[in-house]
Amino acid sequence: MAIAVVSEAHGHVRWTFRLRVSSTARTALTNEWDRCRWVWNECVAETGRVIGIDWGVQETATTTGDGYDLPHAAHGRKAQAKPARYDRMMARRRPKKGQAGSRGYGNAKRLRVKAHKKVARQRRDTGRRWAKSVVPAHDALPVPAA
């Protein structure tokens, strides 16, 4: 929770604090939130807008509404040069069995992980942006079982 305080002589002061609640209070708040969310979902008026979604490989999502198809973004293909470079760096610096890795090996390993995390975040962001455009525009989203 952030609070802004205004002082005539000194301007604005802003500080943040975190309220810690007991596990019993947290459980009660979570249950109340779940109940309110259920009531909200039940009260939303249906307008009959339905879109079918099929998850695939060539296209991430194919829908019955042409404007909502989600093509494969190929984030991994665009970024594959960096992890490949870090793999070669690790191969040159690979320690012998039973020995600790060098600082260069550790750095290359960390950079490789960062590159993979970036691709994962890009994929997650693309999916969330797509979902934010599809969900508000439709009442029902039938998805076939895998």
UniProtKB/TrEMBL annotation:
Biased composition (Basic residues): 109-121
Annotated Pfam families: OrfB_IS605 (PF01385)
Domain Probable transposase IS891/IS1136/IS1341: 44-140
Segments of this protein annotated with the region Disordered: 65-146
Protein name according to UniProt: Probable transposase IS891/IS1136/IS1341 domain-containing protein
Species: Streptomyces albiaxialis
Origin organism lineage: Bacteria, Bacillati, Actinomycetota, Actinomycetes, Kitasatosporales
